[in-house]
Amino acid sequence: MKKIILLTSLLLLSFGIFNGSVLAHDDSREKSTNAKQSEKVASKQNKNKEKIERKLSKIGVSFEEVFDMGDFYYKNEKIVVNILKDAGKLKGENKKEKYKKVKHKLTKLHKKNKDSVLFNEVSFSREELNQNLGSFYDVNSSVGFSENTIIWLDSENNRLELKTNKLSDKNKKRLNKDYGKMLKINIDPSFTTNFKKTNHVTTVGSNAYKGREADWNKLGAGLGIKWQTNGERNSCSTAGTVTKDTREFLVTAGHCIEDVDNDIVYQWDSVVGAVHLDAQASGFDLGLIQINNNGIERKVSNGLFLYGDSDGYDAGLTGTDTPLQDERHCKTGKTTGVTCGDVTKPRLEDQATGQIQIEVTREETNAPQPYLLAKGDSGGALYDPDNNELVGITSMGILDYSFHGEANQAGYVGYFTPFEEVANKYDLTLYTNPTARGL
């Protein structure tokens, strides 16, 4: 896996609309080589994952339950199983018995499928690592970490990794003593994570087919939304529709709707609803817009806008998933359309913002258009291109590429809010029915 060094500022990916000038819009109906290759990679990865799911189902265990006793990640198309060396850390006889069955089943699967299923015995489960990640800054608040600090889950090496621009020898020794081999510390004086919001110009695209920047009765993922902040127009993308009790919401990034005049949001030229939630304060860049019919009649759908179709959406969201390291995923957004990359950090927390993120990196940096995302893609969907399961919500990126003649507008490293985690936290249900439903 290529080591990524953060050399530029992290920029939130919303942008404004004014003066009728053009920055960028997605006008491609053609599936790129990047997307075609990614569908093939994702298909192979999922086939190997399904081998594990079938074995686990025979003993009544779900894929996600294994996170209590191990972890998974990908090595190219091969799936790697990490299982605890023993059951000593597990509490209760039921869990210990389940662990024995899981380890037995997956060991046998590995022996019969060594070309596609790899196997490791490890010291820490994903759940234990994530618990320590989630509490790290609070537990170690006396260290006084700088704003240029991040910590993330490294499934491949079965540990947490901390990167910061400064840390005293005393605090480094203390952390090494407290966490041992669970934590790797990397001190780089040049490392920076400087989050900034910037507004830029755009306009509506002029595609012949129904595009992202158009009014949709059936709401879904990959569409454009607009609002005003102090009279200036701004725009972002959508990640799908969700329900909570009897209410329906359009999903976007929280930073997109944190300061909206009169809480009114448009999709695209007609009112779609009102700001309901900006969850950034809770550590997740999630935004919810409560849908209403004040503009045009709206419906919730599982629509997934990828390349555009004269009849509407060209795909549909089928469910949700938790990201694994090195798993191939794609994002769809109003600026750069469909682009794909690998999960380089399945769970990351930034000290400056406290946001929980998934890091995705596009490795083809020598491609004619090497970017993964650009300003305006915020709020769009990160999804599995093989089965169209929703994985995340586009949040931010390292923007160091020119895009449509403008410098530092696009980048090949992106950060996404984990959808399953926020759905569980806020009791949200993704709408996956192929039949759209009225309000």
TrEMBL record:
Signal peptide feature range: 1-24
SUPFAM superfamilies tied to this protein: Trypsin-like serine proteases
Span of domain Peptidase S1: 227-422
Keywords in alphabetical order: Hydrolase, Protease, Serine protease, Signal
UniProt-listed PROSITE patterns: TRYPSIN_HIS
Domain of life where this protein originates: Bacteria
Matches recorded under Pfam families: Trypsin
Region Disordered: start-end pairs: 28-48
UniProt-listed InterPro entries: Peptidase_S1_PA, Peptidase_S1_PA_chymotrypsin, Trypsin_dom, TRYPSIN_HIS
Protein's GO biological process: proteolysis
Coiled coil: none
Keyword Signal: yes
MF terms in GO: serine-type endopeptidase activity
Entry keyword annotation includes Hydrolase: yes
The protein's name in its UniProt record: Trypsin-like serine protease
Upper lineage: Bacteria, Bacillati, Bacillota, Bacilli, Bacillales
